[in-house]
Amino acid sequence: MAPGPAPRVGRRGAARPPAPRLPRARYAWERAAPLLAAAGLHVFALDFRGHGDSDWVGPGGYYHFADYTADLAGVVRALGGRAALVGHSMGASAALAYAGTEPERVTALVCVDGLGPPDMPADLAPDRFQRWIADLARVAARPGFAPVPSDAVAKLQLRFPHLPADAVRALVARNARDVDGRTAWKFDPLHQTTSPQPYSVRQAEVFWRRVGCPVLYVEGGASGLRLDADDVAHRLATLRAERVTIPGAGHHPHLEAPDALADAVARFLRR
Known about the structure:
Elements: E1 8-9, E2 15-16, H1 33-38, H2 65-78, E3 83-88, H3 90-101, E4 106-112, H4 125-140, H5 152-159, H6 165-174, E5 176-179, E6 182-185, H7 201-208, E7 215-220, H8 229-239, E8 242-246, H9 253-256, H10 258-270
Helix pairs in contact: 2-3, 3-7, 5-6
């Protein structure tokens, strides 16, 4: 996952205001994790740094993508040194990077509706750095937390129409906290800034080619993932990945179709 929401990219990669996004934390797996456990798998869900109930990076720090790879390295070591990884969206990208960094420690990899963002031209970097600095100044001027809008549930339901309403309400409630009488998101406001580093498919491919374990890609049939079909096919071929499509699911199959998602993942990992 890149720190903060990935900006929508227009001509020449110009950033546009991000759409509302679901809070990224372990609570998003509450529907699928019990089903995976019931299938006989040992399931551990984590909050990446600055998300959910994990610690924030602190003054002067930032969340770079390499940090999430380091987080996974620590978790895998804590679990005994080898593990199968299942990641969604940003978590899938982090898992891909880690599986290519320490391939001997990853026994299997499942990417749920996430193969990395679209490629970005290198000459976009100065513009992204400029946007990043402006975003840092904006966050610094705030009271130190990101308030939860009163219409957060309605906005998220509009943005993600395939999600059950009760799932959206539960995620908003679980990812909010009280700060001096105001409702705030648990995540660090720095996650609402633009990452300075453009995404490079050329660099990512170096990691993908080093992945040595079996790979499964699970996509929602109505996902709307911003990659064209040829790009997806190329990435899956590089990873030598199997592909499963869950009809009717959008970008969050683990919330929208947890039974189908858990069945696909369990069958894959049992092999």
